[in-house]
Amino acid sequence: MSTGWIVLGVIVVLVLFAFSAYNRLVALSQRVGQAFADIDVQLKQRHDLIPNLVETVKGYAAHERGTLDDVIKARNSAMSAQGPAQVSAAENQLSGALGRLIALSEAYPDLKANANFQQLASELSDLENKIAASRRFFNNAVQEYNTGIQQMPAALFAGMFGFTRKEFFDLGTSRTEVEAAPQVKF
Q: Comparing C-alpha atoms, which of 122, 126, 131 is closest to residue 56?
């Protein structure tokens, strides 16, 4: 009879541990989702700002049509991207196109002096900083989650519960370009 109680006790402890591990992994997974949603909100703000910036530049640099078209094309691609890997690749392209757009202002003194352009460029610079901070928060959440599903003894239950490895918001080969906020000079 005492052996039965011991076995029952061990089973209860294992079940309680499994519930605890599951709840911890769910919390970590939710944190990753929330962190990506934060990035998504700021990227949407960035996407909304870009047409205004392009329209402002159009008036001053009409013959720079290729650069303006590249920015719009990259923005549309970024807006339709899904998941951290696609979003980060599309945003890398968009950052490069925006860098070229901002560089145009150096060639057009009247554009640099335009108050609307100054405000939009300032908002863009601020958003870039917020996106970088959100990206760091997301990657930290992913790191904690991935560590959580790989650590023993939760690793024994993670696969059973459907918890799989998450991808980082990776900057890839253009890391040094993207990590620096765009330089806006007036």
A: 122
Beta-carbon contacts of 167 under 8 Å, excluding residues fewer than 6 positions away, are 83, 84, 85, 142
- Residue 130 main-chain phi, psi, to 5 deg: -65, -40
Which pair of tokens denotes residue 98?
Answer: 């925006």
CA distances from 127 to 25, 44, 116, 122, 132 (A): 31, 10, 16, 9, 9
| Residues contacting 184, CB < 8 A, separation 6+ | 102, 105, 121, 122, 124, 125
- pLDDT less than 70: residues of the chain: 1, 62-63, 112, 171-186
pLDDT of residue 172: 59
For residues 133, 175, 83, 149, the Cα torsion angle rounded to the nearest 10 degrees is: -80
Question: Could you tell me the end-to-end alpha-carbon distance of the chain, in angstroms, rounded to an integer?
Answer: 84
Residue 131 CB coordination number (10 Å) = 22
Q: Can you give the pLDDT at residue 140?
A: 94
- Sign of the C-alpha dihedral, residues 102, 107, 109, 111? negative
Domain ranges across the chain? 3-163
Instruction: Tell me the chain's radius of gyration from C-alpha atoms.
Output: 24
Provide the CATH topology of domain 3-163: de novo design (two linked rop proteins) (1.20.1440)
